[in-house]
Amino acid sequence: MSLTFTKLKAEFRCINDSCGATYDLNEVVYECRKCGSLLQVSHDINALKETSGKEWRELFDSRLGSVKFPNTSGIWNKREWVLPHVQDSEIVTSGEGLSHLFHSERLTKHFGLGDLWIKQCGISHTGSFKDLGMTVLLSQVKHMLNSGTKIRAVACASSGDTSAALASYAAKAGIPAIIFLPAGKVSQAQLIQPVSNGAKVIALETDFDGCMKIVKEVTKEAGIYLANSMNSLRIEGQKTIAPEIVQQLEWNVPDWVIIPGGNLGNVSALGAGFEMAKELGLIDKLPRIVLAQAENANPLYLSYLKNFEEFSPVDAKPTLASAIQIGNPVSVQKAIRTLKKFNGIVEQASEAELSEASAKTDLFGLYNDPHTGVALAALYKLRAKGTIAKGEKVVVISTAHGLKFTEFKLKFHEGKIPGTDPKLANVIRSCKPEVGAVMDEIGKFLNSESALNLKDIL
Amino acid sequence: MSLTFTKLKAEFRCINDSCGATYDLNEVVYECRKCGSLLQVSHDINALKETSGKEWRELFDSRLGSVKFPNTSGIWNKREWVLPHVQDSEIVTSGEGLSHLFHSERLTKHFGLGDLWIKQCGISHTGSFKDLGMTVLLSQVKHMLNSGTKIRAVACASSGDTSAALASYAAKAGIPAIIFLPAGKVSQAQLIQPVSNGAKVIALETDFDGCMKIVKEVTKEAGIYLANSMNSLRIEGQKTIAPEIVQQLEWNVPDWVIIPGGNLGNVSALGAGFEMAKELGLIDKLPRIVLAQAENANPLYLSYLKNFEEFSPVDAKPTLASAIQIGNPVSVQKAIRTLKKFNGIVEQASEAELSEASAKTDLFGLYNDPHTGVALAALYKLRAKGTIAKGEKVVVISTAHGLKFTEFKLKFHEGKIPGTDPKLANVIRSCKPEVGAVMDEIGKFLNSESALNLKDIL
Questions:
Q1: Residues A250, A244: Cα–Cα separation, whole Å
Q2: Lowest CB count within 10 Å: A113, B41, B284, B410, which one?
Q3: Which positions fall inside the Tryptophan synthase beta chain-like PALP domain (chains A, B) (predicted)?
Q4: In CATH terms, is domain A101-127+235-411 a member of 3.40.50.1100?
């Protein structure tokens, strides 16, 4: 294959279609200077269309098994769709993407589906899907530095996965990272990843919104580049989840994709990826998308109940799915647009529902974080309602590794999450170190409901 | 390619060459019934040799990009070398293997090497390299069940990565798992993975050796299959690390491979993989191997100092590298044989050395567990001595994800590990939420040694 891509280019474009202002990707700009809306990265779709769907599929398939840099990244093996101008020497990668599509016949049968896959975005360098966006952001920063833009550091406000991914990729790039967080509300344990990766972590005597305000001020003036999700570069990385899924399914499209959402950048990214794959002829239809919210932080669910005719922020209450505890999502307009295009649904999950969904599916060998629990709870509920029909094919996006949520798992199995089924809590049993006593204990287990639930072939 | 592999077969063989007893892989046997030695899986090497090295390379390369089951596993895409008789329907996989070879030009330069790669075996389904062996063990159990062997459960004694991997893969297979651990010495937090995956976790009122004794007794009689590392099936999975590394390096062989070791099964597996690749003509030389031990649990290091002429178990002292706190390693004879064949070296690392090595390399974007810290400390020491020469090419095996070791990271950055350089500890700074005060703080950081250490292109 000898495709040439010299004509490809991308730019920032205002998401407000009636404005439509555009900006060079090398500009330091996060919101439209004309109308204040968010920006998105816009590709020259006509230039991309000079390559046929079949050629794109063959190109991407040829790179999937390649051990050559940068094809060992699931972002940069689709680089023409991401940032076509970035040079090899500018790419900051830790092998993100290419995550496994977990499949279990027993789990598929448990849900009464035709097929169920869990897209394991959390089995990654820093343990969450945030790596997908950060490789793009840091690579573009390196490109800007090479182009003469003065950037002294990258910064974000976050106490979770975003700060972990930013600090790791910044360290890989050799670029200082600065993390802002509300003092007294976040422990060192929550921040030990960015602390380990050498980021400057600053605790501000304010709340999270106060931190966002400061990071926006600081990044306006000081050669410090903003890495929060309002920077749409990150979407370009997360977008690749969609073509990667259909590629792993031999270019077949599932009936449904379920994704948890708080700030709602990720569902927009997922939609953008599928739309691009369809527009460029790699697939011939779109899946339906389910956006799953925690009931304690459900502004989009409430809007969905009114057919998206209005949207009101809510005061988000604490939820075990802490990363999506957001009452006023920054990407809500993008998300609503996506859900309308994808004949989408919004579902919600209570604390008990998300915890039980996570615990039940762990019994099939998964190890789910609470956000994936929200998505799986939505699947249980939509199957019960019949919205997702028997025999359909579903992909659930898992956003983080359960290893980041030991406390959540402990709390569940210690029976400390109200409203959950105590039979699902697994406990450690004590026993004398004698073969007879041990065999008694084993016998009880093997004849118990919990062991029978596990068994399928014995 | 139309290779046929109907003749391939494998069996258990006693590692004691003067005994040489063999057993069918479907037999429930862990130690030689004639002489009591450990067993190894022995392949019909002549049958394997009917396929040339070039054909093997092409076959394996053709599978690397394949999305078809079971090639999405780094074990089963090399199935002829692992368990050739296992059928598709018997394979229990969660997408293990295929882990990224992390590469950083800055880190390579930091060590003064020609190339340095970190093989990220810990970025995996359960967060450690143990997945590689457990997929093989559970698949063989399913094969045995299909062949009529009566197995009611799988069991191991372990409080760490082994129990997590066993419970997860057993749950995936639908086979009950039983975990034994010493009561009062292990917290639920350490066991929350197997607890979540529905294993029966039994706390015995004894020490770890007492647990091993019970599990060996129980698995002798009761249709309960032993999954501890003396079961050599696990080695067959771990063995694939070696061909996978050289495949990722386009079938080039690094000068050195460094691996941490406690019970010493893993270094034997690594050696077996390289030997098989050489014997079958995929590579034309072997790397040198460094086995890295914690100074607090260093019996093989002490033996190495005496040219392996004698070996004495030690009382292992507590080490941050808790998984290799083993004074009397079960696979010591296999390991010594491997190190002799590979012109190997044993190096040791103190608690301060392993902690500093981990912390320093985290500043390049890694997030190392303490065992990888032991391996990296060995690299620092061997570079300082000149044993590993400037410009050489090195692969370090990372065995677990840092997310499993939050306490270790916290302890380091809180300055609680004696003898470590306080300048390496990163702390969270408090600040008023005012742009001026924040900019002062940022300015101090950007001009500080810690930020300068990160920078390479600004």
A1: 10
A2: B284
A3: 93-399
A4: yes
